Amino acid sequence: MLTGTCHCGNLHWSFDGTPDSATACNCTLCRRYGVLWIYDWEGEKVTTSGTSSYYRWGDGGIEFHFCPSCGNVGWWRGHEPHPDGRTRIAVNVRLSEPDTVGQIPIRHFDGLNTFTDLPSDGRCVADMWA
């Protein structure tokens, strides 16, 4: 089980399992937040807790949740559920302890222009902290 917490300890998340990769997105928000995302469905592999504020951008399809005290971005969640009733969510793996997530490969995603994967440079999360 992976876990993460914001700087002040208000927000917490857990991810049950080991993700195949963490995503570095270059959209106008993710690149400014400096986040690395791991994904699943709310209440399945991912649980969150703590009092958060959120920002809805553009068409409002995604809510970016952050700590109102320290400002760390904890997760994003879909504003509307999928047709099957589940809600997509991604947690910020940068809120984890480096030794627990360091070997997760990083997937690069072009959320700015093409909404497709970009070539990988072979780095893992630990390389981002080096």
From TrEMBL:
Name this polypeptide is given: Aldehyde-activating protein
Species lineage: Bacteria, Pseudomonadati, Pseudomonadota, Alphaproteobacteria, Rhodobacterales
Superkingdom field: Bacteria
PANTHER family named in the record: CENP-V_GFA DOMAIN-CONTAINING PROTEIN, CENTROMERE PROTEIN V
Every CENP-V/GFA domain range: 2-110
Annotated family: Belongs to the Gfa family.
SUPFAM superfamilies linked to this entry: Mss4-like
UniProt entry keywords in alphabetical sequence: Metal-binding, Zinc
Annotated organism of origin: Sinisalibacter aestuarii
InterPro entries named in the record: CENP-V-like, CENP-V/GFA, Mss4-like_sf
Pfam families xrefs: GFA
